[in-house]
Hydantoin racemase (Rhizobium phaseoli), 247 residues
Amino acid sequence: MRILIVNPNTTASMTEKAATAARAVAASGTEIIAATSRMGPVSIEGHYDGALAIPGLLSELKERQAAGYDAAVIACFDDTGLEAARSFADVPILGLCESAILTASFLAQRFTVVTTLERSRVLIDNLVRRYGMGARAKVRASDIPVLELEDAASGAIGKLRAEIERALEEDGAEAIVLGCAGMTDLARQLQDFYGVPVVDGVSAAVKQAEALVSLGLSTSKRGSYASPLPKPFTGAMSAFSPAGKLG
C-alpha cells in the first residue's frame, strides 16, 4: 500500500515532520511518500492562505498519479482543499481535522482541539461543527504562529502546554487533539506527561487511510464528489481545466 502525504504549504521541514509521524504508525506493508507543494504560502494561517494553497496541493496530487498511490493525506489541520481533492481523486483522501476529531470521539466524551492562532481557531471550530462534533469538542488557540513550531527557541511549546492545561482544567477535556500538522512530533510526549489521550491528525489520518484501502473503499463519485465537469479554465488556471478530472 502506498500513501501520499501532501503538505499544502511550501515548508519542507514540516513535510518531513509529518512524514516521520506517518512512518512511525504505518503498517509494515505501507509505504509513505511525502510531497511538498511548490507554490503557495510557507504556512497556512486562515482562509486566505488556505485558498491560495489549493492549486499547489492539486498539482502534487496530479503529478504523483503516474507513480501511483492508494490514498492521500492532506497534511494541514484546516483540511485545506479536502473537498476539491476528493472531487479530483479516485482514491481515498483524508484530512487531518476530520480524522483527528473522529479518532478522539472514540476515546473521550469531551475533548479539546488546541491550535495555533485565533484565525485558525475560528476556522477549525467551524470544521468541528460541520463534522458533527460541536457538542463534544472545544477549540482553543495558543497564540503560536505556525512557523514558530519549527523554532525551538520561540517559546511555542510552553504556550502549547499552557493552553492544554487550561483545556484540562476549564473545559473538562478528557482528551486533547493537536490542531496543527507542525505539532505532530509532540503528541507522544504530551500524552505521557498529561496522562490523557493526545491525538495527532497525521497519525490518525494514516491509520484511517490504511483501513479504507484495506476495505476496498473510496470516495463516492455520485453527487457532491463527482469528477469535475469538462470545461475551459482561463488565465493562470488554464492548466487546471478538467477533462472528466483535473488534467
The chain has two domains: 1-94+202-238, 95-199.
